[in-house]
Amino acid sequence: MAALAPGHPVTSYVLCTDPSSRLLVVQASGIGSWHLPGGTVESGESPLNAARREVHEELGLALDLREDDLLAIEWAQARRQGARARLVFLWAGPMLSTADTDKISLQQRELSAWRWATRDQARVILHPAVAARITAPLQLPGRVIYQEARHERKDRNDHRLPEAAPSNRDA
C-alpha cells in the first residue's frame, strides 16, 4: 500500500438557497446521509473549480461562483485513528429559482435525492460538523470566516484523536 502524501486533503462545498432562505441539501447514494453539494478537490484543481465541477457533476447545474463568494475555510480535525485532518472550503452559491431547480439532474451513482431544508431541519439531518458550518452566523461573501473543528476526547480509550504531547511549561 502506498504511503499517504503529506498535507491535508481538501474539500469544497456550496451553500445554495431558495427565495425562502432554505438550504439545498443532497443525499448520498447507498449510505443515505445528507450533505451540501460539493466534494473532494482533485490534484491540480483549485477549491473554487472543484466546487463548480462537483455541483455540475452531482446536480447538472453550472453555477457562476467567483473568488469573492468564499464564505468560510475550516480545518477539520480527524475523528478517528488513521484518518487525516482536512481543509474545507464553503462557498456562497446563488439563490436558486424554480426554473433553476427544474434543471437539476442527479448523478445517480453519487446522489439519490435532493431537497430544501430550513436551518432547523438542516441541524437535524446533516452531520453535526456539517450543520455547524451552516448554522453559525453567515458572513456576506467577501468576508471569509476561518474556524477549526476540533473534537474533544472523552476518555483515554477514545482513539479518535492522537495523544497530546506532554507540556514542558511546568518543568
Keywords:
171 residues; alpha/beta; five-stranded mixed beta sheet; three-stranded antiparallel beta sheet; 4 helices; 19% helix; globular; disordered C terminus
Describe it for me?
It is globular and about 40 Å long. Residues about 155-170 have low confidence and may be disordered. The chain has helices at about 45-60, 100, 120-125, 130-135, and strands at about 10-15, 25-30, 35, 40, 70-75, 85-95, 110-115, 145-150. A hairpin with a 5-residue loop joins β2 and β3 (about 35). α3 runs antiparallel to α4 (about 130-135). It is an alpha/beta fold and about 170 residues long. The strands form two sheets. The protein has a five-stranded mixed beta sheet, sandwiched between helices. A three-stranded antiparallel beta sheet has the order 3-2-7. About 20% of the residues lie in helices and about 30% in strands. It is built from four helices and eight strands, in the order ββββαββαβααβ.
Rounded to an integer in angstroms, the radius of gyration calculated over CA atoms is 18 Å
Structural class based on helices, strands and sheet pairing: alpha/beta
Compute the separation of the termini in Å: 42 Å
Question: What is the overall number of helices?
Answer: 4
* Helix content bin: 10-25%
Average predicted confidence as pLDDT: 80
Contiguous low-pLDDT stretches (5 residues minimum) are: 153-171
Read across the widest sheet, the strand sequence of neighbours is 4-1-6-5-8
Specify the overall morphology.
globular
